[in-house]
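Annex B. Sample input.
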Amino acid sequence: MESIHQIKLASEMPVTYTGRITDQHLIDASQFSRSLAGMSRLYSLIGHYCLTLEVPAPRAQLPFQCFSRPSKEGSYAAYLTLAHVANEYQLFADVYKDALDWLISKVMGFVKDALTGNGNVKELVEVISQQAKASAELNTLLANSLSTAHGDVVKLQEKLIETLPHLVSAAKPAYRSATTPVGKSCNAMVQFGGTSEEILISEAEAMAMRSDADLEVGAAAEFVLERMVALNVNTGLCRVKIEGESSLVSGQVVDIELSMPNNPYSKALNEHSAMRVRAKPVFKDGALYRLFISEAIQ
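Annex B, continued. Sample output.
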């Protein structure tokens, strides 16, 4: 049996869980196991896509293995690495690692954005095309992918535009599982943390990704709450009347300040007073569906 030191590792993705009980360096074991299983499938799927520009069938056996390194002291994190099952793949040489990490993170970030109503295929294709001109290693990876797909380098953009929507659909079940702890054991999950391609998945994004409905996560903005109608200080769930909205809106306070005595949210509830907050909106069919409140603005 081969040891881990003999396996050629092509890429590494740090995944960090933050907030809630993970701040105590704890996480629900069943949620964590589902998250790792989903992350492993997602990472292998997107790694396979980046190397071949092909989207495999839902139950296809991929020729890659995903390993986990030990967490670093003082954090709750998983360090996933990708390796070829046969341990023989020339593009897994160290010289290509940075290029493959970059490509996987960009494609994974696009998939996350697409599943939360914000993906832009043409923008991603342009970014990849420009980077390929500047990076000989990335250009080699993509040229190999096109060769595998019986294409030509000049067909890169067309191939990406054709296949990326199928990749999003294929990746959704795995991403759903990967986000299992978000909103339960933790407030957020970060992929490729500490890099320029960091992917943040907050409770708003996780809810949209796990929903069967088409939800769109908007950018964080300021909102005026005319009234806090109901509030559960343990879960953060609330019902609010928002300035400019005719109906009450469901929300969730994800601000750690909610756990403090005399916090502004409980005060607004008790005094029936208005307050200004910073929050991330989630829309359904163009209408405000849920508000994730992260900060009370004094």
